[in-house]
Amino acid sequence: MLKVVKKPKRTSFRLRDREIFPNTILSPMDGVTDAPFRRLCRVLSGNRMGLLVSEFVPTDGDAVFRLDGHKQLKFFPEERPFGIQIFGRFPDKMAEAARKIALELHPEFIEVNAGCPAPKVAGKGSGSGLLRDLPRLQEILHEVRTALDRSCPEMPLTLKCRIGWDSESINVMETLKIAEGEGVELLTVHGRTRLQGYNGLADWDWIGKVAAEAKIPVIGNGDVNSVETAFDRIENYGVSGVSIGRGAMHNPWLFGQIADAWEGLAPKEISAVDALDVFPLYYKFKLEDGSTELGALGRLKQLAARLCKGFCLDDADDAAMPVRQTLLTAQEPAEFFDRLHALREGLARDMRYDPSRLVNLNGAKETELRFGDQFAGR
Ligand SMILES: Cc1cc2nc3c(=O)[nH]c(=O)nc-3n(C[C@H](O)[C@H](O)[C@H](O)COP(=O)(O)O)c2cc1C
Fold it and tell me: Taking 60 as the threshold, does the pLDDT of residue 372 lie above it?
């Protein structure tokens, strides 16, 4: 039985003149949070998610930025309020991309990425590479804001960053000052350094320091995987809201559960059978988005690999394994759905779905512990 969690003082925030409730954002995840996944989360939340953001869109490669060259730019009307995230290292190219996106696609905000740790991005000086070159980050923000002011002044600019390049060079307070000085209206801080990648835990003390200093809303990001963690982070670290990435792959209902809690309701309990019922919907969204059947099957398996880790039986530690194996070895969609049906009518009937048992959100390295263990000793 899920607990009714006390409502934090803050359950919404403002992005310019728009009230955002609840104060949750689905973190952009390249290769995961495409339009079908975002729609899935929105539907499962009962349309109660704060903001959605696109996967990051590259701007360096094109001689002239073309809107038709990037599938990440596609979004559906029901995804609003929606932001488009761009990355690159050339201020003029970033500004031109922002201008075109704002004028033609009319998202609710444009976001600059200063967080991606991938060598092919950060190593070339964009993404978290910008944290080693703050003057360049400043120039990018300046040029993007100027381009927006000329073409689309009503468009808010937001920034997503990490706390620094490595533990010796944490500079998130400088990043905040630069962002505020250049007209950024919301800052999302992922509490890891670039060197950490996705390892270790996010440093929420740094996120809290930024939130305490900031004049703009600060969204905290890193390891939020339950209603309780969301509550703790908002209440105890002073952030305006939380951004949730990998936790949503394990539990795409999380946004709805948080909204339930904020509305004073007991978060909706999901059964193992409910959890399996999500796959046909996701498949439908993938096909509506133009995916091939085999492409969609790949994404069904990606979701199954994460989501089914929350399946459990009271007396067995590794009960999730056979469910995952059954789904992950299907060779085609029809086989996947036949197996899903058999699980739904058989094994899954005796199982519970409890994603809060997962602590390490990284795919291959997950260990299963009870909620709370990861914060022991804090
Ligand atoms: C597969 C994957 C792809 C990601 N792609 C992006 C991206 O395109 N833009 C971005 O700002 N962050 C990206 N991130 C980082 C997440 O948005 C988020 O900051 C990070 O996963 C930490 O949050 P979490 O602990 O809730 O997962 C990605 C993360 C993962 C795991």
Answer: no
Q: Let me know if 116 is a catalytic residue.
A: yes
* Residue 375 within any structural domain of the chain: no
Considering the domain architecture, whether residues 248 and 295 belong to the same structural domain is answered as no
Distance CA 152, CA 154 (A): 6
| 116-167: pLDDT as tens digits | 999 999 999 999 999 999 999 999 999 999 999 999 999 999 999 999 999 9
Q: How far is the CA of 1 from the centre of ligand 1 (A)?
A: 30
| Domain count of the fold of the chain | 2
Q: What is the pLDDT of residue 319?
A: 81
What is the identity of the amino acid at 374?
Q
Domain that holds residue 102: 13-262
Q: Which residue, judged by its Cα, is nearest atom 4 of ligand 1? A: 29
The verdict on residue 3 lying in a domain is no
Q: What share of the chain is helix, strand, coil (3-state, %, to 5)?
A: 45, 15, 40
Q: How far is the CA of 224 from the centre of ligand 1 (A)?
A: 12
Protein residues whose CB sits closer than 6 Å to any atom of ligand 1: 27-32, 55-56, 85, 113, 115-116, 160, 190, 198, 221-224, 244-247, 361
pLDDT at 367: 43
pTM higher than the cut 0.70? yes
**Residue 249 sits in the same domain as residue 324:** no
Give the residue from 262, 289, 310 where a domain finishes: 262
Q: What is the pLDDT of residue 348?
A: 87
pLDDT at 377: 29
* Amino acid symbol at 230: A
In a domain, 6, yes or no: no
CA of 222, closest atom in ligand 1:
25
Residue 3 is predicted with a pLDDT of 66
3-state secondary structure of 159: strand
Residue-level pLDDT at 257 = 95
Q: Within 10 Å of residue 124's Cβ, how many Cβ atoms?
A: 13
- Output the CA–CA distances (angstroms, integers) from residue 207 to 187, 230, 261, 274, in the order listed: 11, 14, 23, 35
Ligand 1 mean position, distance from CA 283 (Å): 23
Give a yes or no: residue 2 inside a domain: no
Q: Same domain for 83 and 215? A: yes
Tell me: do 258 and 285 sit in the same domain: no
